[in-house]
Each structure stands twice: as structure tokens, then as C-alpha cells.
């Protein structure tokens, strides 16, 4: 029984891998040749691409790879293509001179589902809709008047943070955790007028402050 299960599982895994590779090859064949002209990069493995070349310190790996493939190289991170720039001059050209060309973000299925077909400002393509969203955000949410209106909330939460640190009486504290908690409280009070009652336990109950 176990032998048969192992055999069928292995056969199914090989079949799915072949189907996946076939679909990938077919999608690449449908892409015009002009769009497939990419910068140089190391040889990739099926499915994982170049992920095997990256460690827990990817910026150092990019530096070493750039010595071989140049300051502009192409890497495949799983099924996602990435262009890695290691030169300040090329980065300035991409992020400043050619900024509108590279401003759009590539969408994924998860962001399309979670953010209603990329209608939010964070993942919306760079177009007239995104510019209108940015204008509304700047004028209605991030204007000087709106920022000043929440000054009392910020002062109150910062005072609570200071008191919490002073009350530790020389004992070790997790400052990162306290700052994160304070920031969360400021955001919740500004957005909802309340803060999470059990924020440290992961619950989302709100209580008036």
C-alpha cells in the first residue's frame, strides 16, 4: 500500500512539473522577442530560478554577482523576473530621469484579490487614476491641517510611552515593542478614534480612549 502510494505520488509530482514547465515555455513563446531582451544574468534552475544563489544577505550576493554580470543584471526569483541595478548612475537614470517609465508596480494575483483589482493607491498602476488618488490623499489626509489635528493624539501617546519607560525602574525593556505599540495606538486613534484593547495578544477589539 505504501509503495503504491509513493509511486503514484512521485508520478503525479513529475506530471505536474512537466505541465508547469510546458505552460512556462508556452507563455514565453507568446512574448514578443523585443520584450524578452533582458540584461545578462547567471543560469537559472527550473521553477526556483536564481533563488539558490541568494543567502540571508541578498545585498552581498547581488554585489558579488554584479562583479561577473555587470551593474545591470536579470534575476529570476521563482517565477518573478527582477532587474538588479548596482550602479548609482544607472539607478539615478531609472529612478529620476526615467521615473514615469519605471513607476508602475507589477501586479500579482494576491494583490489583485486583496485590493480589488489594484484600485488602492499602493498597488495601482501609474496612471491618471493613481495621480487622482494621490491628490486626494495629499489634500484630504496628509495636509498640514489634518496632520496638526492629530497633534494631541501623538502627544498623548508619546507621553504614555515615556511614562511606561520611566516606570520600568531600571529593568530591561523591549524598546522596539513599546515604540511599535505606541505607533499602532496613534494610527488606530487617528483612524478609528479608538485603540486596540488586546493589541499585544493579536486581538482586534477596540476601546475608546
UniProtKB/TrEMBL annotation:
GO molecular function, one term: metal ion binding
Stored Gene3D superfamilies: Cytochrome P450
One cellular-component annotation, GO: membrane
Sorted UniProt keywords: Heme, Iron, Membrane, Metal-binding, Monooxygenase, Oxidoreductase, Transmembrane, Transmembrane helix
Topology within the bilayer: Single-pass membrane protein
One protein family per Pfam: p450
The family this protein is said to belong to: Belongs to the cytochrome P450 family.
Name the UniProt record assigns to this protein: Cytochrome
Species the sequence originates in: Forsythia ovata
Lineage of producing organism: Eukaryota, Viridiplantae, Streptophyta, Embryophyta, Tracheophyta
Amino acid at each position: 500500500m505504501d509503495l503504491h502510494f509513493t509511486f503514484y505520488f512521485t508520478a503525479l509530482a513529475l506530471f505536474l512539473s512537466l505541465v508547469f514547465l510546458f505552460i512556462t515555455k508556452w507563455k514565453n513563446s507568446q512574448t514578443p522577442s523585443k520584450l524578452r531582451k533582458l540584461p545578462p544574468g547567471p543560469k537559472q534552475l527550473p521553477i526556483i530560478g536564481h533563488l539558490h544563489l541568494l543567502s540571508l544577505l541578498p545585498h552581498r550576493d547581488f554585489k558579488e554577482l554584479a562583479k561577473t554580470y555587470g551593474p545591470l543584471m536579470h534575476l529570476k526569483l521563482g517565477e518573478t523576473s527582477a532587474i538588479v541595478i548596482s550602479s548609482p548612475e544607472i539607478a539615478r537614470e531609472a529612478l529620476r530621469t526615467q521615473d514615469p517609465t519605471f513607476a508602475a508596480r507589477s501586479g500579482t494575483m494576491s494583490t489583485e484579490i486583496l485590493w480589488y483589482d489594484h484600485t488602492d493607491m499602493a498597488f495601482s498602476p501609474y496612471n491618471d487614476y493613481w495621480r487622482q488618488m494621490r491628490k486626494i490623499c495629499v489634500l484630504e489626509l496628509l495636509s498640514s491641517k489634518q496632520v496638526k489635528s492629530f497633534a494631541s493624539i501623538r502627544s498623548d501617546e508619546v507621553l504614555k510611552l515615556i511614562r511606561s519607560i520611566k516606570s520600568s525602574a531600571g529593568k530591561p525593556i523591549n524598546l522596539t515593542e513599546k515604540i511599535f505599540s505606541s505607533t499602532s495606538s496613534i494610527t488606530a486613534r487617528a483612524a478609528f478614534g479608538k485603540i486596540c484593547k488586546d493589541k499585544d495578544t493579536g486581538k482586534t477589539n477596540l476601546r475608546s480612549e
